[in-house]
Each structure stands twice: as structure tokens, then as C-alpha cells.
Amino acid sequence: MSSSGSDIGEGIIPEKLPEHITPPRTEFLAWHRVRKQFIRRHQWNELTKRNVNGKWRADLQKPSDAAGHSHSTMLVTHPLRCLVIPGNHLLDVRSMWTEVSRLDCFIRYLGFNEGHGSSEVGTDVHVANNAVTSLAGVLPDSQVLKDRFEAIAGATSQAYKYLRNYGPYHVVNLDLCASMFPNTAQDCEPYYTALNRLLEYQFAAQKTNWLLFITTMVEPAVVDRERMERLCKPTRKNFDDHPDFAAKMEGLLPRAALDVEAMNVNIGGLSEDEMIRLFGVALGKWLLVLGQSPSPKWTVGMRRSFRYLINDDKGAVMLSLAFEMTPNFAPPVDPTGMSTLEIAAKIFPSEVESAVKLAESVANIADVDGKLAADAEMYAALRDEAADLLASAGFDREKYIQWVNDGESTTPD
Q1: How far is CA 394 from CA 16, 269, 384, 406, in A?
Q2: Nearby residues of 372 by Cβ (< 8 Å), 6 or more positions away
Q3: pTM of the model
Q4: Residue 33 pLDDT greater than 70, yes or no
């Protein structure tokens, strides 16, 4: 879907192929582990493919439409639009391309990488961006800015200008290095402010459903109690006002955690797992509140989400959360009978219905480590997929497989 007033040139079909001229890399990092490939395939790519084949299909231009053209370029105004926080080698974008490119659609992305941007010649990001924008179906004006995602909060910032020019987005993938979990180690407020700005833009500009992926660390041992209580206020209000929601929460937490003085939560006696579940509900409920405030309203639903351990000693886990945002557009219905056109009124889930489903979804967040440990065949398949992905980014495939087989030893995520 094109954004009106965009001052970025529209894309054309590229024909060149990517090249790697440096020796294969052999240094593997935490985000190269097999479990990250599980997240790419079974969460990010799977949900994106489902929507490309479904709700977004009619809006997306198809590369196959260029078949038979006498010229080698085709103006592309309706690609799959993605906002990402990529690593230096754009592995997540490459992975998405391997699956989405088969679905006959173009891809255009804007990324934020505060270390390097794709305009800095010779950097890993520059080389990777050149390679990825050379892939069939990826628009060549796709780029990575040398900037923080949090910078979009400033309405006059370059980051926000690019956000608007490249959007609105079908897919927003916030694979965060820091944390949205309220903690005493680092201020999480900039992430919430930036996400609020993103939602403000998307809710005004996007006219169909879109996906929001949030990957964030949760470390219960360093919780910021005051901010955690503030984040939990909408959850507590639903707990007080709606018995159905309260019943679902009692399946996740001890009643004593929420059955305290008005609008507070008692996190002192929560286990690490209970704190993680409370955060999952509270973050989702925060999104629900923001989705109910604009006009039209937006339904927020948690989709298949996962967790995995990153530091056993500290009780720290990574949550990989998926949300689908759906606008509540309703057709005009004539109650007088003056019109003979029969249009059924559209009914959207209420806020409390969405909150109940959110609590159910949080209860079903799956443990990636457990899944991989229980299925050796799946583990091997994902290892080989990750090896192919890394090889496409200039890494040594065989050395990677050896690294995985030797236990993926590296620093924590």
C-alpha cells in the first residue's frame, strides 16, 4: 500500500545477482543459534506468508505481472512493506525473502541499525544491503539507516521522516537488543514512546491488518517495581471489572498478585515464570488500550508466540511476541429501510473479549528450547536452513554446522 506524499523513488525490478568477495566468516554469535531460525521460520515467516496469501493478496503487486514485457523494468508501487531492526548481515530479511519470494510479491524494507547504515560504503551493513537489494523481487531503494529505532519518537527527526516515507507497513519486526521489560538496568521508556509513535502513524496510515513482532529480554531479578506497576494498571482494571478476565489471570498468577489495593499489583511473591507471564499480559494489554483510543478502533490479537532461555543463573528469557492489528472499519447500515440494500452490521471483538484471548495466548507461549530438544529431526532441518542462510551472507557453511554440533558455544543473547 503506497503512502501518499512519499518522496522516495518507487522501486523497479533488479536484475543483478549478489556477490561475496571476502573470505567466508567463521565467527558465530548468539543470534546465529538454531533457535533463532525456529523463530524466523515458525513465527515471523509463517505469519507473514499467511497474510500474503490471504488478506494482503489483493493489494500486492506480482512480479509475474512483468512476464512478457519488452522492457526489463516494472514500476512497483504496492510491495510488501517491512520495518525491521536488522543485524549487520540482514539475516532476518534474507530469511523472509527465501519464503515470501515464492509467493509472487515484491518486498521493500526500511531498517534501523545504530551501528552502521547501508550508505556507509565497505561496512557489513552496506555489503549486505547491496546483496539483499539485488535479490529478485526486493526493491533496490530498500535501505538501513544508521539510527536508533527509538529516534522515530521525535516528530521532526530524520528517522520519523523515513518511517513515513517508506510506510505504512504490513510487517513491523522489532528485534530489540535491549528490553521493554521494566528493569533497573536500563530505562525502557524510550521504547514505549517510540512504539507509541509507530502506532500513531500506523493506525492513521495503514488501511488493512498488519503484524507487529516484538523480541525482548525479560529478567525478573532486576524488575523496576514502580514502572512494572504502572504498566500493569490496565491489566488490573480488567481484573477488577471483568470476572471472565479475572478467571483467566488466576490461571496464570496467584490471585494475591492482583487482589490487593486498587490499581496495584503485588509482584513481590511471584516466581520468575509468573513474572514473565504477567509481563506478557501487561504488554499486550498496553497495546490493547492504545488500539481502543483512535478512530477507528483497532483489534489487537496475540498470535503464536515463543520464549527461550538466555541466562539460567539470572532467570533471564527472551520473549518473541507476535501481534496482529486489525482496523475496525464498519460498512454503512441503513436502519430506516429507505434503502433496499441489505448490508449486515459488522461486529468486532470487544476490548474485554480481546483481553481474555490475550491471557489465553500468554498461557500458550511455547518454549523453543523444549521443542528443539524433543525433536531431533526438526533441529537438524533448522540447523541446515540456518547454515544456508548464513552461507548466503558470506559465512562458512560447514564451519557453522560444526559449531552447532559442538554445542553453539558463545556469549549469551
Answers
A1: 17, 48, 15, 21
A2: 34, 35, 38, 378, 379, 382
A3: 0.91
A4: yes
Within 13 Å, how many C-alpha atoms sit on residue 126's CB side? 6
Identify the band that residue 66 occupies on the pLDDT scale cut at 50, 70 and 90: low
For β-strands 316-327 and 210-218, DSSP reports them as antiparallel
Residue whose grid cell is 499489583: 265
Domain boundaries, the chain: 30-231+271-398
The CATH number of 30-231+271-398, from 1.10.10.10, 3.20.20.70, 4.10.320.10, 3.40.50.150, is 3.40.50.150
pLDDT tens column, 210-226: 999 999 999 999 999 99
Rounded distance between C-alpha atoms, residue 367 and residue 392, angstroms: 28
Neighbours of 45 (CB within 10 A): 18
Question: For residue range 336-383, what is the model confidence (pLDDT) as tens digits?
Answer: 889 989 888 889 999 999 999 999 999 999 999 999 999 999 999 999
Interval 109-127: pLDDT, tens:
999 999 999 999 999 999 9
